[in-house]
Amino acid sequence: MRRTDKAPAARGDTTEKVVFINRCAKVVKGGRRFSFSALIVAGDHDGKVGCGFGKANEVSEAIRKASEAARKAMEKVSLNENTIPHEVIGEYDGARVLLRPASPGTGVIAGGGVRAVAEAAGIRDVLAKSLGSSNHANVVKATIAALKSLRRRDQIYKLRGIHFNDAKGNQHDASS
Fold it and tell me: In which domain, by residue range, is 19 found?
């Protein structure tokens, strides 16, 4: 276990993680004028996650704006206990992100923005690979797109109108 000091966040309370802060310089007559942009991921560790982008002349103000935008943009994603129901590839502009379900105890095998999104959503076991563009904002948005396209088995059966057996062997009607 790498992080013994950090316990996993409780389900339900919203947390925010700063993924990237960019400093931009504008050259004016008196020298350089700096501004900042922040990319934030917010999630409730129970299947809701969103990202936000904020710009301001101070870092703290940019972070505040971005976290506000992230909380507003939070969307529900389908999870299967502590992992995802099936393998999926999410795309946004040039960024592609591959997410694979993992067995319990694997942990979040992902880097940067993908890890931030997965942890904020409440996923504890997943394998991920970022393909294509490495642009932070696009990688985060591709990961959220991948998570939004996930469907659990019972949801798919219900859409198709098929009867299914759950893990305990109980017969279900698709309409229930």
Answer: 15-172
Q: Is 21 among the domain residues?
A: yes
Q: What is the pLDDT of residues 17-73, one digit of tens each?
A: 999 999 999 999 999 999 999 999 999 998 899 999 999 999 999 999 999 999 999
Please check whether residue 10 lies inside any domain of the structure: no
CA distance 147 to 125: 14
For the chain, what is the domain count?
A: 1
**pLDDT, tens digit, 9 for 90 and up, residues 108-136:** 999 889 999 999 999 999 999 999 999 99
pTM confidence score: 0.83
